[in-house]
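Journal club prep — side note

Before the paper discussion, L.F. wants everyone to see what a predicted structure for a comparable chain looks like in token form. Sequence:
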Amino acid sequence: MKTSIKLITFLFMMLFLITTAQAEIWVVNSAHQVFRRNGNSWIHVPKVKATDVGVAANGTVWIIGEKNETYGHPIYRWMGNHFKQTKGQATRIDVGPKGSPWVVNNKGNIFRLDKYGNWKPLPGRAYDIGIGRNGTVWVVGANSVYGGYGIYRWNGNTWKNIPGGAVRIDVDPRGNAWVVNSLDEIFRWNGNKWIKLPGKAKDISVDQNGVAWVIGTDNVPGGHGIYRWNGSGWTRISGGAIAISAGGKSHFSPNPNPSTSNTSILAICGTWKWSNGETVKIFKNGRATSSRGNIGKWNFIWQNNRILYIINWNNGQYIDKLHLNGNRLDGNNQIGTHVWGTRH
């Protein structure tokens, strides 16, 4: 009986670890500086300024830059130790659970980035956008209503209007929206109606564990106070900001490196079309497989301030050394032959 209890306890603890992965919290302050939370402190991300930030459930981070352009500001993706600009311009951003961003530009147009790296337009117009861990997408529309603008949920083909008004929105893991309206009031959707929460806020986000974070209305250095929902009220967190995004990051990595987030490393995971024509699948547990039956193990090292991925195929028969650039892996094998893959 004692052994069974210990086993059940162990399994419960493992399930808890898997399902309550550490949240990844990023903010932008009033000087447009970018910070990410590390434990109980904030780490400044240098050499970039932003107006908005989006963090996926898998930890992928994108930002909207500061420079004014025709349709808003430039768009950047976090590469593990720096931000890399991608094509496109926007004013608001959030990121789907697998790391693909959805954006709104200064004309209210809505776009999502497809697997080929192209921005695909969607119907409708919006002021803000939010995506949950289960992939549910909500927007604050462009039609003026009491409380800000109309609220809509994507059904796969079009936007379904949900009663209410807001100016900021995000989505929890169950697909329900949390909003802030033009009066700085905070509400969450319970599946049937809006539930008003205490406090006031300027921006809101919900991490992959369902914990909400807000930028308050109190003036502090850096913008406004940062708060985390404790189930009945808001707990003050150090720092000040004007925009916030909360996502998640994996507990597990084939070779954890404390100098970088595991989520940046795990950006390699997924399905790839390889340069020799085969389809390669790379998994979070450090394994890789190919459509031709090859079995591999992958790892990484830091090289010249970049992550170098190493895939060892068939116990050393082939060794690919690759850098990740957006949706492309590029490098050479052990004999110097050029090897690359594009995200499938």
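L.F.'s comment for the group: The longest strand covers residues 41-55. Keep this in mind when we get to the figures.
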